[in-house]
Structures are given as structure tokens and as C-alpha cells.
Design goal:
heterodimer; A: 109 residues; five-stranded mixed β-sheet; 0% helix; B: 116 residues; mainly beta; 11 strands
């Protein structure tokens, strides 16, 4: 079966760094996405990894290891507005996204 | 404003009633999707359409139907609503469905449906 595992909730301090991990098992693999979703709002695209390694985009970076079925999202210089849920979503062999339940990130001053 | 629009944003519905959630996009995207999001669960795909005139079943299609008469519109119909269909429904679109596409989805703001 297909399975996504990410922590339910994490807490971090403003200005700090946080790493949100995601492990996955899918039928085939065509890349992995991270989305951000603020409470009561729609998900918005953050990153896409299809090859192993680190992709950096400003304060956010995403890492992928296909052999380990593992990805992480790294957020630096945390701001209060980063309080949101972060959704890990690998794409399977049918090019369908398989969504994790999301990690709720709470930022404290 | 370019993007994807859903209506209604919120609705309370009696069980057994028929309901259509509307979704319109003006980005000329070929692929469109309907998801439901429930607390503690990931987004679950209900139905999708890779291009106008075609539709397909997702992970949880039972009790729902869709149509794709043109590129812009992708309505979702609940023929006879049941309480288990209480959820937040998101419509999304992408440039292409698969292959040669990063797969980035653009989401509508969601429709919160309560079935009593």
C-alpha cells in the first residue's frame, strides 16, 4: 500500500531553524512535493524534488533521498507567519499525488 | 483576478439533498481535481479530469459525480448527501496531468460543507 508518515505537530522558536521529516512508500515515484497550508486556507506550493539532494529556495530548502523513501523540509530564520501545516506529497507511478496528513508547525516568540 | 474560484464557500445541507459545488479556473489548465480534506487525514482525491471531456475516479469517488464540459469548469455533485460527506472540499488545477509537468497544483479557497 501507499503510506506517508510525518510528525503531527512541531513547535519552534521565532528566528530558529526547524526540519520537518517525511517518509513515504508509494507505487512508483515521480517526485515529491511540499505544500504549505495556513489554517482555513488552501494549500500553496513550496517545493518539488525529483532527484536526490537538496533544493534551496530562500529560507526554505527541501531534501530528497529516493533510496530511503525520505524527504525533509528545512525552514530557516523562522517567522511567525510560518505557523502553518506543511504537507508532504509524493507522486506515484500514475502521476497522482499521495498526501500526508500534514505537520502543524507552531512558532513561538 | 486570475486563478481558481469555488462556490459556495460554506454550506449547511440536509441529508438526502442534492448539492453541486462549483469550480471555475481561468488559467487554461488542462487538468482539474476535486479533493476532500478531513481532520487528521491527508487530502483525498475524489475525481479528476486530465482534459476537457474526460473524467476519472480518484481514491474516494463513491457518492460523488463530476463533469468537464469545457476547460474552465469542473463541478462536483453530491446526488444524495450523507453526514459522512461533511468535509472541506478543494478544487485544484494543473497545467498538465502527467509527464513533462512538475505537477504543481493551484487550489481554490475551499468549500466547507456540513451535512446534517
Amino acid at each position: 500500500g501507499q503510506n506517508i508518515d510525518q510528525p503531527t505537530e512541531m513547535t519552534a522558536t521565532e528566528g530558529a531553524i526547524v526540519q520537518i521529516n517525511c517518509t513515504y512508500q508509494t507505487s512508483g515515484f515521480n517526485g515529491l512535493f511540499w505544500y504549505q497550508q495556513h489554517a482555513g486556507e488552501a494549500p500553496t506550493f513550496l517545493s518539488y524534488n525529483v532527484l536526490d539532494g537538496l533544493e534551496e529556495k530562500g529560507r526554505f530548502s527541501s531534501f530528497l533521498s529516493r533510496s530511503k523513501g525520505y524527504s525533509y523540509l528545512l525552514l530557516k530564520e523562522l517567522q511567525m507567519k510560518d505557523s502553518a501545516s506543511y504537507l508532504c506529497a509524493p507522486m506515484d507511478s500514475n502521476y497522482q499525488l499521495i498526501w500526508g496528513a500534514g505537520t502543524k508547525l507552531i512558532i513561538k516568540p | 483576478i486570475a486563478g481558481i474560484t469555488q462556490a459556495p464557500t460554506s454550506q449547511i445541507l440536509a441529508a438526502g439533498r442534492r448539492m453541486t459545488l462549483r469550480c471555475t479556473q481561468d488559467m487554461r489548465h488542462n487538468a482539474m481535481y476535486w479533493y476532500r480534506q478531513d481532520l487528521g487525514l491527508g487530502l483525498r482525491l475524489i475525481h479528476y479530469s486530465n482534459t476537457a471531456g474526460t473524467t476519472g475516479k480518484g481514491e474516494v469517488p463513491d457518492g460523488y459525480s463530476v463533469s468537464r464540459a469545457n476547460t474552465d469548469d469542473f463541478p462536483l455533485t453530491l446526488a444524495s448527501a450523507v453526514p459522512s460527506q461533511t468535509s472541506v472540499y478543494f478544487c485544484a488545477s494543473s497545467v498538465e496531468a502527467a509527464g513533462g509537468n512538475t505537477g504543481e497544483l493551484f487550489f481554490g479557497e475551499g468549500s466547507r460543507l456540513t451535512v446534517l
